[in-house]
Write a structure and sequence with these properties.
This protein is an all-alpha fold and 267 residues long. It has one domain. Strands 1-2 form a two-stranded antiparallel ribbon. Helix 1 packs antiparallel against helix 2. Belongs to the 4-toluene sulfonate uptake permease (TSUP) (TC 2.A.102) family.
């Protein structure tokens, strides 16, 4: 990789890591569109670009999640009993998500990502909290919820926070605990999704040098180094500042990125 590309990926990783810690997301909604731009500019095989962007994004969440959750855990905000109940379903769902993605062509996958991001941006812009009207479900319900979170996260390369955080707040979990617990859930999502993307991409033809399955290892290395550094900063900020205004700005950025992915779907 040339110096300009390394610098761009370092900046992207820093932004993704900060967003992950601040908003309880895995950063995939930022990373996937920008990775798509980078891989397109470097003339990667068109049919693999979106798959590789999603797979590489998901792999970075393993590192971002560990860094972010340490900062949240230090403040006692992670509900580990909730993590234990959701994790089994998440592991299964996060394996299935990339399998679904592998059955889709690049255009359909880009469209799926664009729809998911636009929905998430609307949720963030409106900042509507689900009415906290119930408790968390029993273990079978938590397993099912984890499965849904895992499938969606594995399919679009995100950390699952835009599903898990509203789910937990709807079940009377305080928002800071929900964000912190979502950060902890990012690791099993990323682990299962990464292994799945390696497995389903191993026999794909024409993948570029430096790929492991659908994962582009050089980008994974550079982005992870930067995101691990900034994720704790975002997590600390989340406990100090109201993030409502930041969420609105972030939502507008997401709309732009969703529009770009929609353009890629029809390009």
């Amino acid at each position: 990789m040339d110096i300009s590309l390394i610098a761009a990926l370092l900046a992207l990783g820093a932004a993704v890591g900060y967003a992950a810690g601040l908003l309880g997301i895995g950063g995939g909604m930022l990373l996937v569109p920008f990775m798509t731009m980078v891989l397109t500019a470097r003339n990667f095989p068109e049919e693999h670009i979106v798959h590789m962007a999603i797979a590489t994004s998901l792999a970075t969440i393993m590192f971002t999640s560990i860094s972010s959750v340490r900062a949240h855990h230090a403040r006692g905000a992670v509900l580990w009993n909730v993590v234990k109940l959701l994790a089994p379903g998440i592991l299964i769902g996060s394996w299935i998500g990339p399998w679904i993605g592998a059955q889709l062509d690049s255009e359909a996958l880009a469209m799926s990502f664009a729809i998911f991001v636009a929905f998430s941006a609307t949720q963030m812009l409106l900042d509507k909290k689900p009415a906290a009207s119930r408790d968390l479900p029993k273990p079978p319900g938590m397993f099912a919820a984890g499965g849904v979170i895992g499938v969606l996260a594995g399919l679009v390369g995100a950390g699952g926070g835009f599903v898990s955080v509203p789910f937990m707040t709807w079940c009377n979990v305080k928002i800071h605990n929900a964000v912190a617990t979502s950060a902890a859930l990012g690791f099993p999502i990323a682990l299962a999704g990464t292994l799945s993307n390696i497995y389903y991409g191993l026999n794909e033809p024409d993948l570029p040098s430096g790929s492991l399955g659908y994962i582009y290892l050089p980008a994974l290395l550079v982005i992870s180094l930067a995101s691990v550094t900034t994720a704790p900063l975002g997590a600390r900020t989340a406990h100090k500042l109201p993030v409502k205004s930041l969420k609105r700005v972030f939502a507008i950025i997401l709309y732009v990125l969703a529009a770009y992915m929609l353009y890629k779907a029809f390009d």
